[in-house]
């Protein structure tokens, strides 16, 4: 069956399972062999054929082996055992038998076909093509060989495309090409390792590890597989374990450039991060900032570790009072790892500290949706209260005092603001200005009424007034507050002294 390739070419699907020979494909090479031994070998072969037909490939293998042991000069016995090994997925062993069969008989078509199929299954498309070409030379109209030749060409094409795309860092395209190639070369470790490496570089670590684990179960000394296993651990911030795999890969292949670079980066990254953590614990925040920044420059591809480094640097910036920079670092951490709860919490606190309450609520909502703990619920509730508080009148701001202002400071502030905005002071101004100053005068009175009363102030500070639908100021009269604070109306007077200049005199 034909399928469309990535570039529009028609690619033939993998061929059917190999068939076994029912009769010897060539006369016995050793004429001196005992006739009884020859008959015994044929009997073993026939029993092997019977088991093969029943798909009992292990027993078929055993009987073909007995046939070979009895008569090692018969090419068809090796060919049949090669077919059985192919069905068992033991392509390297099958390749050896297929090659032996054509060494014994170069005109053995099935032997050449099986050798080609083994090469193709193992990912050796060039060698496979030569085998299929040889079949066509022996049999000019062999449709199976022609189909297999197209399959080998397709694999070569996918290899070339993948090589180019890897250099372009288009790892998704490489994975696609390797998946297509593996349809024809299911036993090719090289293709599987390249696919796994690209999956790791795409952040799909569990998929990559699944592919690599299968290879390492078969070949625990495969340096490329050890490297990719280490790469997965490295990108998941398991740096110490990753280094162990990189070192093991280098033992198997001392010139493995990728393992060497990854090992060096992993060690440098861990060392620099540890230095930064040490400086932070010692309270040396400027040094910690420098060290975390240097660590971030080591390997931009390590998203998970870099997310932690950004979050750590964000914490340092918050300690240094650089809250905007801290928010930026936490945002960078979240871009690299959008599941990183610590970064959301750190950024939310920075938003709270900079009174960006809507952003804080959004981050705390994300945290609580991910981890529904009592602590996270309380943080969300607190941010929601602060958001509501931020949308009401800020009495501290109206009086021009800090939230920790003392009773005396509040009184002094009221005195100053009340006199500044008193309507009598602006009696000569335009109607618009008089209206605005009257509004401010009333707000100053409201602010003083709340902040000068300990109970009302406590409710205001805690946000209880919001839960109680605000404080009822419907019957509030700013003039009454003013009179009560300053005494009888006759104890002071406002005197105009030219536009914009006013004087007041206490009795």
TrEMBL record:
Q: Which SUPFAM superfamilies match?
A: Chaperone J-domain, TPR-like
Pfam short name (any one): TPR_16
Give positions of region: Disordered.
Answer: 1-38
| GO cellular component terms given for this protein | cytoskeleton; nucleus
| Cellular compartments annotated | Cytoplasm, Cytoskeleton; Nucleus
UniProt xrefs under CDD domains: DnaJ
The J domain, residue ranges: 394-464
Alphabetized, the UniProt keywords read: Acetylation, Chaperone, Cytoplasm, Cytoskeleton, Nucleus, Phosphoprotein, Repeat, TPR repeat
Q: Does the keyword RNA-binding apply?
A: no
Note the PROSITE patterns from the entry: DNAJ_2, TPR
UniProt keyword Plastid, yes or no? no
PANTHER family reported for this sequence: DNAJ HOMOLOG SUBFAMILY C MEMBER 7 (PTHR45188:SF2), DNAJ PROTEIN P58IPK HOMOLOG (PTHR45188)
Protein name as it appears in the record: DnaJ homolog subfamily C member 7
Q: Which organism is it from?
A: Thamnophis sirtalis
